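anyone seen this seq b4? input:
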Amino acid sequence: SILNDNSNLFIGAGGNGSITVANGGNVILNASVFALGQQSNNTGTGLVTGTNSSLSAYGMNVGLSGGGNLAVANGGRVSSETSLLLAYEGANSSVLVTDPQSSLSTVSDIRVGDFGNGTLTIANGGNVTDGGALYLGYQINGTVTVTGANSSINVVNETDVGIYGNGSFTISNG
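predicted toks r here
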């Protein structure tokens, strides 16, 4: 099943919301933004799981003004044609990329803890590819943990830990 759309997709915009992409499902947002937790006091949750399951968007926000949580598991794939902003505008947000063949990729920067508290965890063989720079604690608090055999993060440009906020980068058990 495929959702192919040219407009933004906001989960947790006027209340709490969730989206699951599974069993080979695909969400394609052409020239559009995917956001979890779009409004303050709301939470958006996303799960992309299973081989050939994917979500792609022009831009991606996990925790835009509210809380956002995204998990990519069991071979799921998530991609952004531009950047990933994790924990924007005061939100507490997390992204988990876990299991072999699970991946998250961006063409541009990943900001963890942009103006909120953000956590990116890559575990159990998951992979993240950052086509730009990796910023941890851009304004507030940003944490990245890479743990487990074959888990990896590949950054094309610089990695900055604690720019204007607090940053933490841990690599372990691999």
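The mean pLDDT is 94. The longest strand covers residues 26-36. kinda curious what u guys think
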